Amino acid sequence: MDEVQTIEAAVLSFYRGGSEQQKETHKWLQQVQNSPQAWSFCWELMQLNKSSEIQFFGAITLNSKLRSDWAEVPKEAHHELKQKLLETIVLFGNGPKIVLNRLCISLGLFIVHMLRHPTVIEEVTNMFLHEQLGNLSKVTQIEILMAVLEGIPEEVKNIRTQIPRTVVCEELNRNAEFVMQTVVTYLNEKLSHSAVEPHDMNGLINAAKCTGTWVAHGNVHLNDREGMIQTLLKAIHYCYWKEPKDDGCLMPEENELAETALKSLANIISSYATQNAKYSFTVINYMKLFLDVLVPILDAEYKENNDNENLALMIYALFISTLECFSSAIFAGIVTDSEEVSKVYTRTVDMLIKCTDKPGTYPVDESCSTYAMEFWYMLQEEVLSMDSGEHKKRCLEAIKPVYAHVVKVLVRKSQLPTESSLHKWNDDDLEAFRCYRQDIGDTLLSCHDVLNDLMLDVLSEALDESIMYLSYDPQSTESWTLLEATIHAFCSIAQKIEYTEHQQIVKLLKVLNEIPYEKYSDKLFGMALETVGAYSEWIGDNPKYLPSAITLLVKGLNSTKASQATLGLKDLTSECQKEVIPYALPLLDACRTALQEGHLKNAEMIRLMYTVGNILSVISYENIILYLDAMVSPCFEELQVHVQNNDRTEPTKARVVLRLEMISKLFSSLNIRKPTEGDMDKGLVVGVGPHKLPFPAGGTPAPGAPVQPILLILEKTMGLLKSLCTLWIHDETVIDTLCKALQQALTNLMDDIKPLLTEMCCLVLSILNTNCVVSAADIAGNFILMFYKDQDCRQLMVQLFTAIMDYNFNQMELNVGKLSRIADLIETFYAFNTRISKKIPICYSEVQIDCMKLVDYATKCMMLPETGPMKKSVAFITMFVKESTNHPVMMNVILAQGENIVRSTFLCIGGTALRTQVEIFADIFLALNFRYPAEFIQWMKLLEVPNFPTAYVSATDKEQFMRKIIKERVNKRLVQDHVRKFAALCRNIVEYENK
C-alpha cells in the first residue's frame, strides 16, 4: 500500500472509527499534514473518484499548507500552484460544496501571499468575470469569485506570510475600492431585475458578505459608502417584499441574503465608530434610510410568533449598533432646531418603544424586546452625563414622558407565565425569562435615574391598575400576574429609594399585607416577601412600618416561600437591629417554631439562624441565655447523639454539616458588643442592647461585663466539638465546616476568645497535623496574627505556625512534579505566608522552619498554570523580599535564592504564564531592585544566556529590557509596561502587537 492509500485509509478510519482510534488517527494525520510531502499528495486526494471525506481532507491539507508553510514553495513554482488551484476549483465547481468552499479559501490564501504583485486581485477577478474557467457556468464562476474575494481580508488575520504585515495592509487598502466596485456593481445589476433567478442567490449572498469583510479597508470616508448602503438596503427590501408569501415566511435563501446584508450594514457603521463627531450629518442621513426601508418590515412583523423573528432581531441589532457607535449624533435630536435630526430621533424612540412592547411573552412568543433595554440605558446615560445647565434640563424634561411610558411597558412585559400557559415553556425558556426579568429590573433603575420621585407615581398608578384588574374577575386564579409584576418593579428600584416617608411605599406595604395570597399562585406571595426584604433599609428609617413587615415575613416562614421569608428577615433584622427590640421575643418565638416544625429546607434553616443571632444580640442578657438554650441546644444535642453512636454514614454526615452550618451562621451574627460608626470614631465599642458595655477598641471588656454568648456556647461544647473532630478528621467537608464555625466565633469574639484559646488551638493543631483543610489554615493564621506577640500565647502560636509549615511542605514534597493537584492548598498556604511576612515577619527568624525551602517552592508554584497559586506565590515572594532586609534570616534566603527567583520570573514572562497575567511579575522586579539593587543587576545578567528565556528575543532586546528594568525602582506602571512588551517579544507576537 503506497503513501496516498495509507492516508486514505487513515482518513476513513478517522471518520468511521471509535473515539480512541480517532484520537490516535487525528494525531497521525496532523503530522502528515505538516510534512513537506503534503504539497504533493493533497492534489491526489482531491479527485472526483474519491470519497467526500478524502476529498475534504485533501482540501483542508492544502489550506493548512498555504496558511502555515508557504516558505516551502519555491518562487518558480508559484504559477504552477495557481494553475493547479484553478483547475481543481473547476473540477469541484459543481460540488461537493464542502470541498469547493475550502478551495475558495485556498485561492484567497494564495492571493494574500502574492499581494506583492499589484495586479493579482484584478487578474483573478477578471478571469472569473470573463468566464475563463473551463466549462463552469457564469453563475457558478461569479459565486466562486465572490466567495474568494470575501475571504481575503479574513485570512490576512491568520496567515503566516513572508510579506510584512504593513505591506499586506497597504495592498488591501489599495485594492479595496476595486473589489467594492466589482461587488456593488454585481449586486445592483442582479437586483435591478424584477425577479432574481434562484441560481443567483448564492452569488448575491457571497457578494453581500464581501462588503462587510472589505469595509475596514480602503481609507474611504463614511459619506462615500452611501451607494453601498443603499444597495444592501435594496437587497433586504427585495427579499422581504418581492412577492406575497402564503405563510408569511421568507425562503431560506432570501432570509440568508437579507440577514447577511444586515450584518454587513452593521460592519460598515461600526468600522467608523471611532470617528463619531466627524460623521454626524452622514449618520443622520443613513439612519433615515434605515428607518425608511426597515421599519415597514418591523411593522409587518409586529405580532406574536412571527416566522421572520430572526430577521426582525437583526434589524433591531443594526439600529442598536448604530446608536452605540453614533449616539451623540442621534441624541442631538432630543432638543434641536433641526427638524430632520429631531424626526430621526423621534422615529428611533418610537420604533424602540414598539420593540420593548413587542406583542407576546418573551421568549416563547417573541425574542426582540430584550434588544431595546440597552437603548434606554444609553439614552439616560447620554442625558445625565451632560454638563448641568439649561440644555440638560430641557433634555431631561423631554425624555421623562418617554421613560414614564417605558416603565408601564416593562411592568406589563415582566409578567410571569400563568399555570395554564406553562406547557409551552421548557427549562431554557424559564431561565431566559429569569434573565430577562433581571434585565427589566436593571432598566427600571435607569428609568428611576431619569424620573426620580415621579417613578413612584408611575408605579403607584400601575399598582392601582393591577389591583383593579384583579377585582374585575374575583373568581379568576390567574389574574395575579400583573400585580406580581408591579410589585417586582417596586422591588427592583428599592435600592434607589431614600429615607423619606414616601406615601407610595406606605401604600405598597399596606397592599402587601391585604392581598388574599391563598387565592393565587404562591409566586405572588414570594415576590411580596422579597420586596419587603428589599425595603428593609427604608423601613429602618421609618420604623412605624416595621410591625406589618414582620407580620408578613413571619407568615412567610410557614409557607412554600420560606426561602424569601428567611432572606427578608435576615435583611430586616440586619438593617433594623435596634428598631426590632420591641418585637424581638415574639419574633424569636416564631423563628423557634419554624425551626422545630421541620418544614424548612437546609438553606432556610441556616439563614434563619443568622436572623436569630441578630435578634439575640439586642435583647436582655437573661433572655439571651433562655433562647440560646431553647434554640441552639437542639443542634448540639443532635451532634452529641451522632458522636455517641459513632455514626459516619452519608445521611448522618449531611445532618452534621447542616447543624455546624447553622451554628456557624449564628456565630457570625451573635455579638452583644457590636460597634457603631460613632463608637468606632471615638475608639470605643458599645453594646447595642439594654447592656451598654463600653470598653477600649483594643477589645478588652470592662470588668464585670457579661460574657459573650458565643464564648458560653463554646465553653459548654468544646468537648463535643473535639469528639466530633476526632470522629470526622478524615472528612474534608465536615472538618472544613467545623473550622468555618470556629472562624466565625473568632471574628466576633476577637480578644474575648482568650479563655478558650488553648483548647481551640489544640483542636486546630489536631486538624493541621492530619487534614490541613483551607479553613483550618485560615483560622490558624488569624490566631497567629492576633496572639503571636502575646508572650502568654507565644508557645502555642509557634506550634500552630510549625504545624502549618510542616503539613504543607510534606504535601508539596509528595506532589513534586504535579503541584497542580494541590493548587487550592498552595493558594491558601502562600496567602497565609504573605500575611505573616507583612504583619509579623519576625516569625521566620524565631521559629525553626526552612525558609529556603519556603521560597524555593514559591518559585515553582508561581510557574503553575492555575491563576490562584501563581498570584499568591508572586505576592508572597514580593512581600518576603520587601521585609527581608530587616531580618538577617530572611535576607540570607533572598541572597541565596535571588538568581533562582529571577530565573523563574523570566520563564513565567517568557511563556509559562498567560500573556494577560504577566504584569504581576513586575512586582518581583520592583521589590528586588529596591531592596537589593547591586545583587539585582548581577541576577539580571541571566538574560545574557543564549535563547533564554526563549529563542525569539534578541540579545539587543534583552539588553534594552535589562537597562529599563534596572533603571526603575518605584514606577510600577512603567515596569509593568516593560514586562508586557518583553513578554510579547519572547512569544514572537510583536507583529500582532504593532498591527
Features:
single chain, 995 residues, mainly alpha, two-stranded antiparallel ribbon, 47 helices, 69% helix, 0% strand, globular, disordered C terminus
What does it look like?
- It is a single chain.
- The chain has a domain at 276-451.
- 69% of the residues lie in helices and 0% in strands.
- By secondary structure, it is mainly α.
- A two-stranded antiparallel sheet has the order 1-2.
- The chain is globular and about 100 Å long.
Question: How many beta-strand runs?
Answer: 2
Helical coverage, percent range: 55-70%
Q: How are the strands of the biggest sheet laid out side by side?
A: 1-2
Q: Termini distance?
A: 48 Å
Radius of gyration: 36 Å
Q: Low-confidence parts lasting 5 or more residues at pLDDT below 50?
A: 676-700, 990-995
Please identify the structural class as seen in this structure. mainly alpha
Q: Strand share of the residues? A: under 5%
For the largest beta-sheet, the strand count, sense and barrel status come to: 2 strands, antiparallel
The tally of helices reads 47
* Spatial shape: globular
